[in-house]
Structure formats: C-alpha cells, structure tokens
Model the fold of this input.
Amino acid sequence: MRITSLLLSAALAMSAPALAIAQNDMRTEQVRFDAGSSGTTIAGRITGYENVLYKIGAEAGQRMQVRLDPSNLATYFNVYAPGSGPGDEALAVSQMIGESVPDLNLYDATLPVSGDYTISVYMMRSAARRDEVSDYSLAISITGETGTVVEADYADGLQGGPDFYQVSTSGGGLNLRAAPSAGAAVVVRLNNGQNLRNLGCRMAEGRRWCRVATLADPGNEGWAAGDFLIEGSGDASAGTGGGGGGSASSGDKTETVVVRFPSGTTGTELTGSLAPGASRRYVLGAANEQFLYVRVAAQGPGLYYQIFNPDRSFLLDMVSSDNEYRGQLWQSGDHVIEVINRGGATTNYAVIFGID
Done:
C-alpha cells in the first residue's frame, strides 16, 4: 500500500504544472470577439515559466469550448471560474481527460456561473526550467443564447452593482449602442465623466455590456461597454460642461508621437512623463499577421495603456502598466498605443515597442 502511494505521489509530481510563477512572468490579455462573432483564435508564444492569462466573459448555461494547439507538447491550459486564478482550484486542467476535457488540450462544457473566466496557458515545469519555447494557437468560442435574466451571477456583478455608473475614458467619449455589440448602431455619444442609471449588465462578445439610461430629460437608453464604466452618482450635470465632478478627460492634454525603429532593428524604447489626467498616443505602423509587443515600465502608480487598431476599434482595452502585451495583429496600418496617467501625481515611464 505504501509503495502504491509513493508511486502515485511521484506520478502527480511529474504531471504538476509550472504554477510557481513569478509575477513578472505572468501577463493578462482580455479576449474580445469581433462584432457578431461567437469566437476567436489567438496566436501566442511563451518561453520558460511565462504564463498567459486570457480573460473572457460568459454567462451560466452557455457553452465554452477551448482548444490549444502548441508547437511544444509540454504546453497546457487551466480554466478558472470567475473570481479564481492560478493558485486556486481549477475548473478544468487540459492535461487531465474527463467530463469537461474530452481530449488533451480541449475543454468543452456548459458554464456553471456568470462572470469573467480565466484561461491560463503554461508549460510543464520540466520544459519551463529548460527555458523551452512554445508557439501556440488558442481557439475560444462561447455559444448558446443567454436567458431573459442572468443566472448564477458571480458576486452580483451583472444584475447588481451601483445604482449609477459614470463614463471613464481618456481623451474622448463612449458610444451608447442600440444592442450589446460593438457592431450595433450608435444611439448617442456619451461624454467622459457623464453619469448614467444602471439598468443591468449582460455578457456578449466576450465582454460585459451594461444597459444604461442618461439622466438628462429627454433621456436615451442603450448599451455601453462595461470596461469604461465606474461607480457614479445621480448628478445629471457631471460630464456635460455644467459643473459637477467626473473623471478628467485628457482632451488637449494628449499629444501624439510617431514611433520609428532604428535602421535594421525590430523595436525601440522611448521615455516620457505624464501629468495627472494626461495621455500620450504612440502611432506605430504594422501589418496584418505581424506580432506586436508593448511594455510600459512606470516609475509610479496610476499608469495605464490601451491599443487601437487602424480602424480605431480596440485591439486591447485599457489595462494597468503591470501587464505587458504580445499578440498577433489582424489589420494593416497605423496602430495607436495610448499611455494614460490616471493617478494623482506626475509619473515618469519607459515604453518598449517591438514588431516581428
């Protein structure tokens, strides 16, 4: 009996994923589907102990399918329920075949909870410690209609929340749309800092969309991307130029820098400084199917960045400078990387760009 236990312990140790990951070896990417789409395929690369966390929103009762095709067969993924992540118990481990994992590196199941799920891609410790490389494609789809009401809402995050939201963007407003989709018609353009009544949120196209109503009379109702909403108040004048509070808009505090790489190189590093509420846009030309790398090294808190495609749709929604970005592009032309200071003090930083 003791020999059996020892053999089992050894087998589990050999199959344990590389979960002892330093914070700087972990990066987070928000997954978004194209308007009207139910899935996407992401191309990525990890080296050694690197770990990529893909965040995707879905509702209870929908079906999620995740398939990983890696160049290095020691590469796997874990799926975590809303509110969980590396270090917590996984909802599924792609190297352990079972009810929700019908084959290696394939997850296919009906989701139990509404909220943001995490898909963690990593290499086994034996490969990670040799600093091996894995190029991979990760296909994610979410299918099935959502019900008339949100089921199994994690932490009251969709149907609960504050009574009022406030638009929080940088250097511009936010589209209020007729339906929860990036392709839906625009009802009106909301101002940065404007307060809205919360009518409840749903998940669509991998993200949170909130049904809101403007406070002015006559008002408008529609759907706004939840990424750009924070808790607000019933002050109808905020963000309208009639006094009141509201988040500072970068407005004319935003400058544009065209990024050029030194001859014969595929990247560069620039430095800068931003006052509170200010932002700087870096314009970088790149082609479809190339890989873009962005890292913002801030010397203080409160620095964020976001990336726009040439058609001004989001490639990456606003994230903290703690997260670096590497992903494959799907449009050709000028991409915009906007660095924003949302803190209360002037902050120095360096931003590193790479294209391959």
About this structure: Confidence is low (pLDDT under 50) at residues 1-23, 242-252. The first helix runs from residue 2 to 15. The longest strand covers residues 133-143. The radius of gyration is 22 Å.
